[in-house]
Amino acid sequence: MHRLIIRSQRGRATVSTAVVLGLLLLPLFWASTAGAIEPAPRRRPTQQRRAPAQRAPRIDYKNFSHRTHVEQQKLACDSCHTFPTKNWNEVRKGDEAFPDVVEFPEHASCLNCHRTQFFARERPAPAICSNCHVAVTPKNTARFPFPSLGEPFFASARAQSFAPEFDVYFPHETHADVVSFYRPAPGDLHLVRASFASASAGPQQTSNCAVCHETYQAQGTSDVEFVTPPPKSHPEDAFWLKKGTFKTTPRTHTLCFTCHSTDGGLEPLPTNCGGCHKLRGSEPQMQRDYTPQIAAKMGVKDAFTLLKWSRRSAGRFRHEFDVHKELGCETCHQTNAMNTLDERTFVSVKSCGGEGSGCHVESNTDGILNAEIDQKQKNPAFQCTKCHIILGKQPIPRDHLDALPKPASK
After folding, report:
1. Does the residue 212 lie in any domain?
2. What is the pTM for the complete model shown?
3. Which of 5, 24, 31, 87 holds its CA 20 to 30 A away from the CA of 304?
4. Residue 352 burial (10 A CB sphere; 0-12, 13-18, 19+)
């Protein structure tokens, strides 16, 4: 029995020693055979790299866009807006009330497409709610005043950054002889008597333009000349916005619906929003002689003033200037040629006395336009300041040169 055990243990020792020696000699074996047998390189499957997928731009649901809904979605106005809104006789009282769209669309108009955005887990409330609601909280359901309300809207802080998406199509030529027969409901415009003198009556004639357009914030006989008081250090000849610079335009449907009512049947009817309201075109408009920084520097916060000023190409022009206020509207504005969808047709440089007819354009450098163009041609750094605030720094526009009298042919 003892001999068997000893043999068994020796056998195990002999096997263990052989295994250890084999493992130690194995690297030497591989090294000696590496040069003789070289494994073929492993080919990796070729893969074509895919361009990273471009993500669609994230939609900002805080900024409602009519263009998206009208041009891309092809929605009609009455898809969202109901005429008249339920509260039309509540926001305007008594005789001032008339059927109108005076409120944002109901939630049901939005939920068909925007259910996901309405129930988004966003705090304090879904972003889409801020288009209409003031506080954007479930406890406060107040909405912003609707733009069609006129004064209540323009008196709100929201109106200061208001940028209309629509231009209003209004054919002056078809209204010129009829508009003064009618009067709007009280509260929208202060009307003056107007005559029907023709444009041939000369520059001193009155017209029915005053039915819709009056001097805004007129100075009149007041000693207060400026919209906001300039600082004492402000140079006397430097620009500062004055009262009576702009003319009003109707800000509500009040005057329009006098004729274009659902009862009268005169197209476009109040239910046809697109008959007058046209999405602003993409074609270039006139350059703006205005920057928000200038208005902020002067402390101008009146929303209607900012809206009018921001669309000016001659920022310094003042309707209430001594000479200008004596002129008839047709002296500068050719109503038969005006297209309210194209700002370039509102007034031309030639209205300032083109072809040597006087005022600011003469047959020699006595005219201010002649003089400033002469200075600009001699010195490109010269800044024209008679009409412009900032545009006078730019090169002379072609239409300004065309307004100068042509040399007499020999």
Report:
1. no
2. 0.76
3. 87
4. buried
User: What pLDDT was estimated at residue 8?
Assistant: 44
Q: Worst-scoring range by mean pLDDT, 152-161, 193-202, 249-258, 317-326? A: 193-202
Would you list the DSSP string of 142-174?
-BPPPGGG-HHHHTSGGGGG---SEEE---HHH
Cβ count near 400 (within 10 Å): 20
Decide: 169 and 179 in contact? Cβ < 8 Å: no
Has residue 112 been placed in a domain? yes
117 to each of 135, 255, 261, how far by Cα in Å?
A: 17, 38, 37
Cα 247 from Cα 227, distance rounded (Å): 14
Omega before residue 203 within 30° of 0, cis: no
**Count of structural domains within the chain:** 1
Q: How many CA atoms lie within 13 A of 153 on its CB side?
A: 20
CA 185 remoteness from chain centre: 30
Helix, strand, or coil here: 277?
strand
Do 336 and 173 touch, CB atoms closer than 8 A?
Answer: yes
**CA angle, corner 110, sides to 109 and 114, nearest 5?**
150
Residue 116, in any domain of the structure: yes
The residues near 65 (Cβ < 8 Å, ≥ 6 apart) are 165
SS3 category, 249: coil
Residue numbers of the domain that contains 124: 66-161
Q: Which amino acid is at 143?
A: R
Q: Is-contact 80 109, C-beta < 8 A?
A: yes
**Does a structural domain hold residue 74?**
yes
pLDDT one-digit tens code per residue, 197-210: 333 334 334 468 88
Residue type, 180: S
- CA-CA distances (angstroms) from residue 228 to 178, 295, 297? 38, 10, 10
pLDDT in tens, 252-283: 999 899 889 988 778 999 999 999 999 987 76
